[in-house]
Design a protein that fits this description.
five-stranded parallel β-sheet; globular
Length: 184
């Protein structure tokens, strides 16, 4: 896809969007939102947040590598790039030249939080818009926390995460199976 311009003689401007998240781990729901977001932009940056308030299963570098492997399997390496960031999402979006922040909505319960984030981002920079994409029905039950629990308890991961992520989850789950057992 070629970048678009508003007039024939104007320089082409690449439309960049940022899809931020912890992606711990990346799920088929995340990748579905990323693939569909490509209808809105020329390049999508899946921005992996380094949030020190969370205790992720995977390191920042492992999450980046898992997403890159998944994107490669989808054949979208040129259009989806993976990067890490720390701090305000809107500052990162500005830094990479994005005019759009993409978020995914699974259910009504997500809406209030996403609405609040969109408004605070607009207050920080009115030139950057937030767009929420509704999850596809087949992934509406998915969350990274549910996937982690499934992995820890030996549940089926086919169809909820890419194969490379399922392998990484299996390795992590065996290493920590006795350490953390909760109900899904």
């Amino acid at each position: 896809m070629q970048p678009v311009s508003s007039a024939p003689n104007e320089e082409c401007i690449e439309r960049i969007a940022v899809y931020p998240g912890t992606f711990d781990p990346v799920t088929m729901g995340h990748l579905d939102i990323a693939r569909r977001a490509l209808h809105l932009c020329d390049r999508l940056v899946m921005a992996v947040g380094d949030n020190r308030n969370k205790n992720p299963m995977f390191t920042l570098q492992e999450r980046i590598d898992l997403i890159r492997g998944s994107v490669r399997e989808m054949g979208l390496e040129g259009r989806i790039v993976v990067d890490a960031y720390r701090g305000l999402t809107v500052d990162y979006a500005r830094q990479v030249g994005a005019g759009l922040i993409v978020r995914g909505l699974r259910a009504v319960t997500d809406f209030e939080w996403e609405f609040q984030l969109a408004l605070i981002n607009r207050q920080q920079d009115s030139e950057i818009e937030t767009v929420c994409l509704m999850t596809s029905q087949e992934y509406s039950f998915l969350s990274a926390s549910v996937v982690r629990e499934l992995a820890l308890l030996g549940g089926k991961l086919a169809g909820v995460v890419p194969a490379n992520v399922a392998e990484a989850l299996a390795a992590k789950s065996h290493a920590g199976a006795a350490a953390d057992v909760r109900d899904v």
